[in-house]
Design brief:
Helix content is 62%, strand content 0%. By secondary structure, it is mainly α. The chain is globular. The N and C termini lie far apart (71 Å).
């Protein structure tokens, strides 16, 4: 890599690494250390191909998604660390911001899902990708993405009922951007 390419890569990392780390944290279920490893591996791969990459952020995000998919497809997943008592929730008494509280609750709720469920929800709702793009990234059908999304949301609601209290109460759900509105025409015989 020449000096100009190194400078471009350093600028990219300095400017975009915090946003990419947030995505990696969500993909890893709130495990910051795993997220940092995920992002570091993705950046190493990007550095090796830097001169051939047209859209660096899209490339790094693609690597993040694929590495996460590879992790939950492993035959022998890493074992969780067992502790005597569960840790206390890390909510600061001085933090009164509803947005911060929502982020903490959401991160905790996402960590209760399986890696596959978490990945589908992050891609669909955090990254705001259409179902077809999620299916292409994960190497599955659109129907699989839909059913996994449905089951993941149902499980999320069951595991974290506290999310309902934090969200808007009377707001109507936003329309999906996956489908164009359909005009209905009455046909008379």
């Amino acid at each position: 890599m020449d000096a100009e390419a190194q400078e471009d890569f350093r600028d990219f990392v300095a400017n975009r690494s915090s946003a990419l780390l947030r995505t990696a944290i969500l993909l890893s279920g709130g495990d910051r250390h795993a997220a940092e490893d995920l992002l570091q591996n993705a950046l190493v791969k990007a550095a090796g191909r830097w001169h051939r990459i047209d859209e660096p952020e899209a490339y790094v995000r693609q690597v993040l998604y694929r590495q996460q998919v590879s992790r939950w497809r492993l035959k022998w997943p890493r074992r969780e660390l067992s502790v005597a008592e569960p840790p206390d929730p890390a909510v600061s008494a001085s933090d009164t911001s509803a947005a911060a509280e929502l982020r903490l609750v959401m991160r905790d709720a996402l960590s209760r899902l399986t890696a596959r469920q978490r990945t589908v929800l992050v891609l669909r709702y955090f990254e705001d990708l259409p179902e077809a793009d999620v299916a292409r990234l994960l190497g599955c059908s659109v129907g699989t993405v839909r059913s996994t999304t449905h089951r993941s949301l149902a499980r999320l609601r069951a595991l974290a009922p506290e999310l309902a209290a934090l969200g808007p109460s009377d707001a109507e759900p936003l329309p999906s951007r996956d489908f164009a509105p359909v005009e209905t025409v009455e046909v008379r015989p």
